Amino acid sequence: MIVDLYVAVPKGEELDPILGSCIEAGLDGVCLLGIGEPPPIKTAQESRFGARLKLFFGVLFQVDRGGLVWIPRDTEIFDNWNIKPPKTTNDVLEITPDAATIAVHPYDRSRGISFGDTIFQTIGLTGIQVANAKQDRLRNNMAIDASTRIKVAPVGGTGMEKPERIGRAATVFLEDVEDQASLIDSLLRGDTWAVEFLGSLQDESDYRDERYKGPRRGGRGRPPRPQGGYRR
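^ thats the sequence. predicted structure below, dont judge the formating
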C-alpha cells in the first residue's frame, strides 16, 4: 500500500488539486497535515476525490530543532483543539502518548532550521522522512543512515511542495492500513519502505548529479514495482 505521509495543506488551500494529484500519482492513501493546526478533515472527506483514497490526518509542527509530522491514533483529538504551539520535540510528545512523531527531512535546511546530527539525540521519534519531492541524494542518504542507526521507520512524502510534485516520494506499507490506528501500529513496527519515483525526462535530469549515476524508473500512475526503496 503506497501512502504519501507528508502533504502539507496551508490554511485555505484548495484540496481538490491536491487529492487529484494523489490519485494521478497512483497513491492508495495520503496523510494531510495542517500547519500548526488541525487539518481540513471534513473538507477532505467530502471532496469528490475523498472516497478514492485512504485519508489520514496529522499536524506539521515547527519546533526548535526542525519540523515534526505528528499523527494521532484518533482524530477526535482535533475536535476541541486547544493545543498551544509546541516549542520542542518533548512538547509534541506530551500532547498525547498515542501518536506517531516523524522528523521532517533532518538534513534539509532549505526551509529553515533542521535537526542535523541532533537527530541522534532526539528521543521518542517514530520515524524519519528519508525521501521527499526534491530528491536530494546526499541529504536523503544522510537521513537513511540516521533512521537505520536509531532504528526508526524510514518514510517518504512530498513535503512542503506544490500539488504537481506529489508522487515523487511516498511510503510503502507492507500491509494495508485501514485507519489511523493501524497506520500508527505499522509505523511503530517499522513495516515501511520509503520510495522515490520518476515520471519525466526532466525528473531524471534533476535526479542525476555527481553523487548519482543512472536514472531510476517509476513514474505517474501505479508502477509495476517500486524502485529505489529504503528499509531499515
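The first helix runs from residue 15 to 24.
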